Amino acid sequence: MNKIKNEPLQVLASMLIINANYVHGTLYLNEDGVYFKANGLLADQEIRSQFLFNEIQLIKFGFSFKPYRIVIKTFSDEAYIFDFVSKQEGKALVQAVKQNLPRA
User: Fold this and answer.
1) Across the strands, what pairs with 51?
2) What is the pLDDT of residues 3-14, one digit of tens each?
3) CB–CB of 49/34 below 8 Å?
4) Residue 86 has what DSSP assignment?
5) What is the full DSSP assignment across 20-38?
6) pLDDT tens readout for residues 63-75
7) Where is pLDDT greater, at 16 or 1?
8) What is the rounded CA–CA span in Å between residue 36 and residue 67?
9) pTM for this structure?
10) Structural domains in the chain plus CATH codes
11) SS3 of the chain: helix, strand, coil, percent, to 5
12) Quick check: 48 pLDDT over 90?
C-alpha cells in the first residue's frame, strides 16, 4: 500500500442524493479512505461521509453531463455519485485511491 502524503488531496464535488438533487461539498483523501464533507446548510448531514479503503469495491472517474464524475461503489453494491468534479483534481484523487485499495 502506498503512503499518502502529508498534504490532503481534496476535490470539490456534489453528491447525488435523489434524482437531480445534490449536496455540495468536498471529497478528500485520508490515510484510511475517502471522506465527503458537505458545505452550507447540510454540513454534517451527509448521507454517507466515510468510504474506507476496505469498503470500496470500485472507484471510477469519467465524463458526464455535469462535466466530470466520480463513482464510488462499495462491497454492499451501493453506488455513490459525485458530479461537478474538476478533471485534473478528480483524476488525481481516483488514481491515489486506486493505489491504496487492498489487492484481492
Assistant:
1) 34
2) 555 667 888 888
3) no
4) -
5) TEEEEEEEEE-SSEEEEEE
6) 988 789 999 999 9
7) 16
8) 19
9) 0.81
10) 10-100 (2.30.29.30)
11) 20, 45, 35
12) no
